[in-house]
Amino acid sequence: MSKTSTDGVPRHAPAPLRHSLNGETMGTRYSVVFYGPEDLRTECLARSLFAAVDRVDRQMSTWKVESDLNRLNSAPVGEWVAVPEELMTVLAEALRIGRLSNGAFDIGIGALVNAWGFGPECRHPDAARIAAASETPRATAADSLLLDRPGGRVRKFAPLSLDLSAIAKGFGVDEMARIMDEFRLNAWLIGIDGEMRARGVKPDGSFWAVAHERPDRHARDAMGVIELADMAVATSGNYRRWLETGNGIVSHTIEPSRGAPLVNGVASVSVITPTCMSADAWATALLVSGIERGLALARSAALEAIFVMEDGTVTSTL
Ligand code: AMP
Ligand code: MG
Description:
Elements: E1 17-25, E2 28-36, H1 42-60, H2 68-74, E3 81-82, H3 85-100, H4 110-115, H5 127-133, H6 141-144, E4 145-148, E5 153-156, H7 168-182, E6 188-192, E7 195-199, E8 208-213, E9 222-228, E10 232-237, E11 242-245, E12 248-251, E13 254-255, E14 260-261, E15 266-273, H8 276-300, E16 304-309, E17 314-316
Antiparallel strand pairs: 1-2, 2-6, 3-5, 4-5, 6-7, 7-10, 8-9, 10-15, 11-12, 13-14, 15-16, 16-17
Helix pairs in contact: 1-7, 3-8, 7-8
């Protein structure tokens, strides 16, 4: 029997190759980095990823006139409206985090977002709309929205303008994650804008690194790195979207209890959770809650959260 010099030596699979894909959705960009076989055909993956984020956008955007969300917004009070499964999932999670955050997270703030110049309807604060949208008592999503999950339908009890901008991007990332898993990819970092989710680690064993942005309105800079493996991270703050008016800076985050843009000294909050939908919504909820109530809430909900104050102080629950 002959024996060659390679007999008994395990054959090594070729090292996985780094691939990247990106595109546009929800008025911003999505990006995907992953390791996979060198000969992997990425066209089908790219198509599936786009279809997944585009479906979320078409269902949940307030900027698309024909979205399912806008259909629900313009439906008469009291009428049942059929909604697709994904939208139902997001509405249910939004109401859950709304309850847990004692109303700091409220998707019923759509009219206020528009009135202050951050929605699709106007680009500047509009005094008449602000007065109309701030009339008390204001209908909240918690009080005025009923979900019939088994029946796939939703009903409003008051005129309500719903806005899912603080949670839909995170859900879009989770939908991309589902596609990556379906393609049996197990080492990836994906994101829409700054909302990110990772699976596994890189082939060299290192974690995925996401920049922790310095909340600076005038420069893009990282103040640290958040390392992820099988987790998602989302950051909310008022350093990317804001308006300068005669009365100072107006934040795009609404404080539902005051019915006005947020002013509380917190510059940004990052939350790390297994799903990006929940990270996205919690980041907004904790930002609105402020440092004291936000930290207490994060601890009671066992959330990993990092608060950066406008004076640069950093506090985390880690
Ligand atoms: P994010 O960047 O995820 O914090 O989302 C901010 C966006 O969510 C804003 O531009 C509004 O459209 C919407 N929003 C503002 N305030 C709230 C709030 N208190 N609860 C839920 N959504 C909000
Ligand atoms: Mg958010």
